[in-house]
Design goal:
Blueprint: H1 3-27, H2 34-46, E1 55-57, E2 60-62, E3 67-68, H3 79-85, H4 87-90, H5 102-121, E4 129-132, H6 135-149, E5 156-160, H7 165-176, E6 180-184, H8 194-200, E7 205-209, H9 223-232, E8 236-240, H10 252-255, E9 259-263, E10 274-278, H11 306-342, E11 348-350, E12 361-366, H12 371-377, E13 381-382, E14 384-385, E15 388-389, E16 394-395, H13 398-402, H14 407-410, E17 413-417, H15 424-443, H16 446-452
Parallel strand pairs: 3-13, 5-6, 5-7, 7-8, 8-9
Antiparallel strand pairs: 1-2, 4-10, 9-10, 11-12, 12-17, 14-17, 15-16
Helix pairs in contact: 1-2, 3-11, 5-11, 6-7, 11-15
């Protein structure tokens, strides 16, 4: 029995049981209310009487919910995290900034406990943790906020060509305001060269921003060495550690980092909450990006969402406890996936360093296969592509282009993301589906036929008509 079919039977059985009750409930609700619309959406998606278990969304019809292998995009909430959050949705609902009654006090206490848990996960002080809406906001505060605060003396930022888009866009925004930005190249392994970093430093360099673990290819940058260079030159180091927190050891003291961006939903916590580490000694100062009530020491105004903060704290605590197990687990899964695919397919390339990487992220390119066609064929596996769709054309990933990956291979990249709850059975099923789809597409590829006939495609002179 396949994993998919057993899952479908359970989904179908549950849907058949609750469908009549939901139908009755909808008759008691105003026909155009938000609740009725939500109920209609949930029942029509979960259960189809004509084809039990079938799901149809955005024109794609599949036999059931696909396997989830996109952990870099987001992760499911750990049940232990949900248990910690639930009381603060229902009974302990006070505003943590209300200082005159018990409801506010208990919420404030919960937020401060969460702050301690987040700080402990990176070896920081709770006083150095500011809650935000996520890593994107933390990156914006770090890059824009730091440079704007020091705009009189610091006019230069150093980052890499493979950073997350929110860092790159923040740097471009600074350029529009007259700041200078150096975008360091990376090697074919995705790692920045320390000599390039040191050579780019100027007297007015204020900030170096380099991601710890790349979200697209999983490579781990040499952050301790980068931190040493920044310390030697008196420059503040910022790192986007959203993909590193809870997955690999992260120690702000060891790295010597001044600013670090964190996210909850990458480590089995809730979406909508993140944190920013801001070093106190020597003090790092930033300009707030939002005006308001002066919460979070005036650095991030707005009511701290108690349930989400509690969830992030719990997720950090669980991640630290489970890190050794999780690391071994995803390493086994990655090798199982890679060996399973490579044993049956040729022309499979790993993008990024095979040595310096987080095991739960595997970015592969499949020669002679178009990536979007492969993705569309893998409807039973939730994965992502390194290619990005634009309105007019299909462009290969800017990260893979920075690695020097040939455009035809960059178009074929697929990112497989494994995590705490991924099973070996799911990996085996993903291998089977991937291999079958690649073989199917290659059968239709004239280029692959030429390669099998021994023709060197790169030596062919293509003529335009």
């Amino acid at each position: 029995m396949s994993i998919m079919s057993s899952s479908l039977r359970r989904t179908t059985s549950i849907s058949k049981t609750i469908a009549p009750a939901l139908t009755h409930l909808k008759t008691l609700i105003q026909p155009y209310s938000a609740t009725a619309v939500a109920l209609e959406s949930s029942t029509s998606t979960a259960y189809n009487e004509e084809e039990p278990g079938a799901i149809s969304m955005k024109g794609v019809k599949i036999s059931g919910r696909p396997l989830y292998l996109d952990m870099q995009a987001t992760s499911p909430v750990d049940p232990r995290v949900l248990d910690a959050m639930l009381p603060y949705f229902v009974s302990h609902y006070g505003n943590p900034h209300s200082r005159t009654h018990l409801y506010g006090w208990e919420s404030e206490q919960a937020v401060e406990r969460a702050r301690e848990q987040v700080a402990a996960s990176i070896n920081a002080s709770p006083k150095e943790i500011v809650f935000t809406s996520g890593a994107t906001e933390s990156n914006n505060i770090s890059v824009k906020g730091f440079m704007r605060f020091h705009k009189e003396s610091k006019r230069h930022v150093i980052t890499t060509q493979t950073e997350h888009k929110c860092v790159l866009d923040s740097c471009r925004h600074l350029q529009q305001q007259g700041f200078d930005v150096t975008y360091l190249p990376v090697g074919s392994d995705g790692l920045v060269k320390l000599s390039d970093l040191e050579a780019a430093i100027r007297p007015d360099t204020g900030l170096v921003s380099i991601m710890t673990v790349n979200n697209e290819i999983g490579v781990v940058q040499p952050m301790a060495e980068i931190g040493q260079i920044c310390k030697k030159h008196g420059i503040v180091l910022h790192t986007d550690a959203a993909q590193a927190l809870g997955k690999i050891p992260v120690d702000v003291q060891e790295i010597g980092v001044g600013l670090m961006s964190l996210s909850a939903h990458k480590i089995y916590g809730p979406k909508g909450v993140g944190a920013l580490y801001i070093r106190r000694r020597p003090r790092v100062r930033v300009e707030p990006q939002m005006s308001g009530g002066g919460q979070e020491r005036g650095l991030r105004s707005g009511t701290v969402p108690t349930p989400l903060a509690v969830g992030m704290g719990a997720a950090c605590e669980v991640a630290v406890k489970e890190m050794e197990y999780d690391s071994k687990h995803v390493q086994v899964l990655q090798q199982r996936l890679l060996n399973g695919i490579r044993s049956r397919l040729d022309g499979v390339v790993i993008n990024g360093s095979e040595e310096h990487r987080y095991w739960g992220n595997l970015n592969l390119s499949f020669a002679y296969v178009e990536g979007e066609s492969l993705l569309m064929g893998l409807k039973e596996v939730a994965v992502s592509s390194g290619s990005a769709c634009t309105s007019a054309s299909l462009e290969p990933s800017y990260v893979l282009r920075a690695l020097g990956v040939d455009e035809d291979m960059a178009h074929t990249s697929i990112r497989f993301g494994m995590g705490r709850f991924t099973t070996e059975e799911e990996i085996d099923r993903a291998v089977e589906l991937t291999v079958n789809q690649v073989e199917k597409l290659r059968e239709m590829s004239p280029l692959y036929e030429m390669v099998k006939d021994g023709i060197d495609i790169k030596s062919i002179q293509w003529a335009q008509h």
